[in-house]
Amino acid sequence: MLFYALPLLATAGTVRAQGSVTLYGTLDTSIEVTNPGNGWTARMDSGAYRGSRVGLRGSEPLGNDTSVIFDLENGFGSANGTLDTAGTLFNRQAWVGLDAPWGETRFGRQYSPLYIPFKGGLDAFGAGTIGSGLNNLSKITPYTDNALTWISPSVGGFNVTGMAALRDPGDGNGIGGYYMTANYTLDALQLSYARQQTHGDAGLRANLAGASYLFGPVRTYVALFNGDGGTPRYHDDGVSLSASWAISPLARASLGYAHARDRSGEGNNADQFSVAFEYTLSRSLLLYFTAADLENRGNATFTLRGVNVTGLPVAYPGAPVRGVQLGMIERF
Fold first, then answer.
1. Residue 307 sits in a domain of what CATH number?
2. Which residues form the Porin domain (predicted)?
3. Which terminus of the chain has fewer CB atoms gathered within 10 Å of its CB, N or C?
């Protein structure tokens, strides 16, 4: 019996060897000192630039340049070890799909297509840290449950992504929301547009559009945004202007300005000015420093936050918020 089983075991081992599973992760920890209008407060943040996470991604070839793919990703606090979402293990991603010549499909919990890297591709601050006015003054849905996604291959520098989300059981039938992005790249120029519309009590409509251009060591960015919905209601539009300068292969400096306009007509606007510096110590280790000044107008209550960081609430409506942040990112 063992004689007959050996060829089967060898075959099974060969099939498994064709696939791969990769353990990966990011530890992003920073010290932030912020004044939200009532004095300076120091705290330790996790995930201000790139959310702290650990995950498993894998693929299994099926032939004809087609593979089954999956990603299971857990977000956690690197400052205290807690889950980002209590009671949910894979709170960032939990999907399975196919990678084929006609594009990539995914099914399950995923990043919104408007999230990193799309939003980060419109901003010198990567839509992260307290320095990103684009992140602080705009509003999108970062994660989506029950999502069906198609990511097109790039054709002539053009690619699109489409996502539809089904409602959770008990929340009615039909579509919970849809998302789409489009990118076009021509040499040093990149043009981008994205839209989302979610439904339900906290439904949010949002649009993002922008361009970036590389002038030697300097890349410039302009982004336009608007949105309506959410809880509490967000009803603003605005613009973000930023630039990054590659001082050397290891060092980069960024400068930015962003403005949000209150579309309700009540004048609750905001402006943010930011600077940042990054230094790459190794293939896996990055240091970053950011400083920002956010000026709320009227009764605006915007604050300085990060990718996975809830900003300190302002001391009173219209309060200015100023802060500095020093952090490090370790990837594996």
1. 2.40.160.10
2. 8-298
3. N
